[in-house]
Design brief:
There is one protein chain. The chain has a single domain, classed as Rhomboid-like fold (Up-down Bundle). The chain is an all-alpha fold. It contains nine helices and no strands.
Length: about 240
């Protein structure tokens, strides 16, 4: 096996391992979501009171627990797929800051809903989903990194219609506050972490061009100074 083939094989193994690691936390999170719903169905229980009830002491635990509680299996299924895809994309492309962004999106969104939401129980992981989608979109744009911008466009292509969910009255019996505040949380974190994590690479040829450009400017400057110096020589007598 040639050295080139060995490098390709090692690189492929690295990216496979990175992908598998990227699905762990989103996978565990979704597993807990389904476990909670299974317990509700098996024991005939209802965990709605683990959701967020704004400005209520009893609703505070919902900041942590509400993403795991869903109204029915359809609601749970509709949240599971985008959460898995967006969560995996976050941990794959933003591995350095992914855990911080995931947890902060979860907690900030929940806290804002507790402060500003309607006087009703707010449940489900949709606020977290909107936060992750918002972060992935705006972070790619802010960083101006081609691969991340491409990811931003992919998010728009897959979930662009989600933007209507941040407006009141668009969907019945849906916490549009969670959607809107999750969306805002994602923008906030994209700005906060804009200089941390993946950045647009600087290639050698770009550095060489910059050095050549600086050299050319210095030459022009020296030539200009030399020409102006000649103009101010004392006149010959």
């Amino acid at each position: 096996m040639s050295e080139n083939e060995t490098n390709i094989k090692e690189e492929g193994a690295f990216y496979r391992k990175k992908f598998l690691l990227s699905i762990i936390i989103p996978g565990i999170f979704i597993f807990i979501m389904w476990l909670v719903k299974s317990l509700e169905l098996i024991f005939g229980a209802e965990f709605t009171d683990l959701g967020i009830l704004p400005l209520s002491f009893s609703g505070l635990p919902g900041i942590i627990f509400s993403p795991f509680v869903h109204s029915d299996v359809g609601h749970l299924f509709n949240n599971s797929i985008p959460l898995f895809l967006l969560g995996t994309a976050l941990f794959y492309f933003y591995s350095e800051v992914a855990l911080n962004v995931f947890i902060l999106t979860w907690l900030i969104t929940g806290f804002l809903v507790w402060i500003a939401g309607r006087d009703s129980w707010h449940i489900g992981a949709s606020g977290l989903i909107y936060g992750l989608a918002s972060f992935l979109f705006f972070s790619g744009i802010i960083r101006k990194y081609f691969r991340l911008v491409a990811l931003s466009l992919l998010v728009v292509f897959l979930y662009g219609q989600m933007v209507w969910g941040i407006f009141p009255g668009t969907y019945k019996n849906v916490s549009w506050e969670s959607h809107m505040l999750g969306f805002i949380s994602g923008i906030f974190l994209a700005i906060i972490y804009r200089k941390v994590g993946p950045q647009e690479p600087v290639y050698e040829w770009m550095m060489e061009e910059e050095e050549e450009e600086k050299g050319s400017k210095n030459e022009i400057k020296e030539q200009t100074l030399g020409d102006s110096g000649e103009q101010f020589k004392d006149p010959e007598v």
